[in-house]
């Protein structure tokens, strides 16, 4: 990057930060309007061109939104732009799929003992129902399969009692990106029986409010997934060594 380009890049970043500071300093929340482009430029003491470029950048990451004929608004928070950008960036490195799983594993293992201590009867009923549904499907097909909807609902229900909305959103991000990348990397389909048994052990530990046992069950569950991912990565190395 040339010196001129570097300076321009820092200026754009500085303008974005000043707009974000304006939003926070004025206590603006999702759905609140910002001043018109010209007024915002005067308030910040910068050019309209700089404001326009910064607004486009902040729109791309989901902080602002322009409503044609209406104006500029603070956008409700969403992970959607992060998911899209993360998925795109990870496509260039198959090994990142294993790294993504490692982060998710530590995230869930770090919270599961607290979840076990606070799990409610309603949560346990939902978790047991999901596991029973997995068991019924596993009995019908003992070979490879997929519990996509049950799996997503199961892992959300595990932690919903903690009241940590950021955790739930992060789990959704990891789940969505992981599923897409897993399909692209041609990871072997899950074994229905083994997956059902893994989830059943997690629920049994929660029913006993045994945090350490729940944590061990979570780690064993993700250990099986990790093995399938590394097997798929080995196939990529053998078939397409130029991608590694």
The gist of it:
This protein is mainly alpha-helical and 244 residues long. The protein has helices at 3-25, 37-44, 48-60, 80-90, 95-118, 121-140, 148-159, 165-184, 192-207, 211-239; strands at 64-67, 71-74, 144-145, 190-191. The protein has a two-stranded antiparallel sheet. A two-stranded antiparallel ribbon has the order 3-4.
Corresponding CATH architecture of the largest domain: Up-down Bundle
As for the number of domains, it is 2
Q: Considering the protein shown, what is the CATH homologous superfamily of the largest domain?
A: GntR ligand-binding domain-like
Radius of gyration (Å): 23 Å
Strand order of the largest sheet: 1-2
> Overall 3D geometry?
elongated
Biggest pleated sheet? 2 strands, antiparallel
| CATH third-tier fold name of the largest domain | Four Helix Bundle (Hemerythrin (Met), subunit A)
Q: Termini, distance in Å?
A: 26 Å
CATH C-level name of the largest domain: Mainly Alpha
Strand content: under 5%
Low-confidence stretches: none
The total count of strands amounts to: 4
List the helices and strands and how they pair.
Layout: H1 3-25, H2 37-44, H3 48-60, E1 64-67, E2 71-74, H4 80-90, H5 95-118, H6 121-140, E3 144-145, H7 148-159, H8 165-184, E4 190-191, H9 192-207, H10 211-239
Antiparallel strand pairs: 1-2, 3-4
